[in-house]
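Pasting as-is:
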Amino acid sequence: MHLYRGTASALSQEIISGSLIPHLQRRFAERVLYAPSESEVRSWERSLPAVAKELLAAGLNDVEVLVEYFLPLTSKRADVVVIGSHPTTNAISALVWENKQWTTGDIEDIDGRLVSVAGRLLLHPQQQVKQYVEYLNDFNHLAHDGSLVVGGMAFLHNATSAEVTPFRTADLVDLAEFPIFSGDEVAALHRFLLERVSGKGASAAADDFLQARTRPSKLLLNHVQEQIQGHDAFTLLDEQLVAFEFVRRAVDEAHRSNVKKVVIVKGGPGTGKSVIATAIIGDLAKRGYNVSHATGSRSFTTTLRDRVGSRAGALFRYFNSFMSAGPNDLDVLVADEAHRIRKTSNNRFTKKAQRSELRQVDELIRVARVPVFLLDEKQSVRPDEIGTVDEIRDAAQQQGLDIIEIDLNAQFRLGGSEAYFHWVQRLLGLAGNGAIKWEGDERFELYAAENPEDLEAWLSKSNDDGFASRMTAGFCWEWSDPVDGTLVEDVVIGEWRRPWNLKPEKRVPGIPSSNFWASDPAGFGQVGCIYTAQGFEYDYGGVILGNDLVWRSGKWVSDKSKSADTVVKRSDNFDELVRHTYRVLLTRGLRGCLIYSVDPETRVYLKSMGINYI
């Protein structure tokens, strides 16, 4: 997806006529459901005329230009992609063109590829281009057989060559193929362009580029072993890579100076928190640091242990595993899904002599020289889950510790559809001023079903077509133990009956434990709940809205009497927790979601919100 497509000549004419910026603003709002920021609009106004000018000056009037091109399966955008044919091979040639308005700055960290600009630490522009190029090579199937060649460069159009010099160093030799040009180096820029792209057949080349199949996204759990071993199974982009490098720097500095640091990484579902976590674990373990990963999720931790094998499995623990640990026993603790932190680590199995009144967040900070917390505050779904940025920040400040905070905002799940994520937030009343109609997004499929039979049939076909698909539901039915080695069909809607996923402590031949329900193909056919779906992803998700949240007289009405979750229904903030629950369930899919409500009035409301029924 992109906000604008046209030849370089057409782009120039749109700029001259004044129609380009309003077009970009309108398209942006249509695609992501909120208006672009003033700074983004200013960037378009100042940078795009420079792009058009240099393309025309190089004689590349006929090349196709994509403005604000969304990378496949993510909401990250390349400023410009120039497409045509390669001058010598006639392959499709695509050039990622990143614009920067910087006129000052310096390299802050060679190894981390970080630069300092106006007091901000940012990814080096050549490294950013490299990551985008690698990502396109990974996800556009035309690159796999050589029919597409992807390159890239960065253009600091406001800067002089002297001002760009601080960003250049021989230590970045591996980035030489993704050069950086200043505003007074346009002759070199023109040579670079002409060596790599021509306007011959550009329109057809752009059609092929945009219509090419997208290689399926790598599911985290299918590649976690490779990631843990430090093989970089995933390409980290922009703030993901910045977060990763921030942690690396904090660890190295803490080791050198014996100073403790706390890192907080926050982001919504699908922003790549767990990918960053596994990348950190793999890199630091490979470099000899004593590192551990912890979550509050038995399903997630058990699955990670299973995927990486017995030797590496010891890296993965629970939040309550550190009650007896000493200060700084670890170099690094990566606390994934930190929104699930509890008040204390005590539970019903904790022996009296081992019980502690120390807050769990204080335990997690105490155990590591650099504790790293990754969280999404709106994924707390139980009353005893108290992990928030304020809670972690307060604990760190009380100990006088340095705090580094990083905010992730790009979408790497949901097909990269920011529009769908914002639609869900507003649908459930968790953001914005009321729900808005779904206008569609080619990157994400959203449908509704009239009955559970249709929902299951649609998901079953997707499953048969090779896409991992799962059914989930609100916790509105009892969860029974197996009877005579058979799952009980607890979820009953009319004549349709299906079992919940198997309880983790139970065993039934051929049925995966709830801990593996989301990742084992045999999990299809059982209904997952919030505790087995949270933290996982699959291609298509079917979500059954129960009677614990229904639409009445223009608003959502929650009803704890309809809940079978004995812990959550006793909570004073049941309404917030049930909305958080459905937010999680509705955002597990990589490619699409299918919604069914057991309540007829709610189904009518969903239809009014622009969702097509299958």
